[in-house]
Write a structure and sequence with these properties.
single chain, alpha+beta, 5-stranded antiparallel sheet, 4 helices
Length: about 170
């Protein structure tokens, strides 16, 4: 196979306007949320970062680790922001292994719209659980991605895992 098309991704990316105004940034608006509130997807709040479930996940358990400071400049992240981001990625991996038992993970950041960033003005890191056979015909033929667990249920399980790992 030479190309795998994912037309739903372009709709998601186009749904975000480029806006330098922090007050309109979806991530900046999450800073005052409480992870224990069931009305949001926030899973963990650190000193320099927070962890949130992706509302449009590639797979069940798709988390994002987000620096609190509004920036899109990877090279401009402070040592504290970088260190905590990667410590939180490790914690996310442990929690996801405990809750979902995936076979592997994709971890990374999409920096810039051309690199696939849906929210390009606020850098964030993805950790996506992967299982053997988790790619199938549904996204390609049916223009739909199958997520097997409700986000609220996933969040509840992750909160329990995070509390036992902290």
């Amino acid at each position: 196979m030479e190309k795998l098309w994912s037309p739903w991704r372009s709709k998601y990316i186009e749904s975000f306007k480029t806006d330098k105004d922090e007050t309109k940034c979806i991530f900046c608006q999450m800073l005052n949320l409480n992870p224990n509130d069931t009305d949001n997807l926030l899973v963990d709040m650190g000193l320099h970062t927070f962890t949130v479930l992706n509302l449009y996940p590639y797979n069940n358990g798709h988390l994002m680790i987000v620096p609190k400071r509004h920036t899109n400049d990877f090279s401009g992240l402070t040592n504290d922001e970088l260190t905590e981001s990667f410590v939180k990625l490790q914690l996310a991996e442990k929690a996801l292994r405990k809750v979902l038992n995936p076979h592997g993970f994709n971890i990374g950041a999409n920096i810039g719209r051309v690199a696939g960033a849906g929210i390009e003005d606020h850098i964030h890191f993805h950790i996506v659980p992967r299982w053997n056979g988790d790619s199938n015909f549904m996204p390609v033929i049916g223009d739909v991605k199958v997520i097997s667990q409700d986000l609220a249920e996933t969040k509840s399980k992750l909160l329990n895992a995070y509390s036992s790992l902290s």
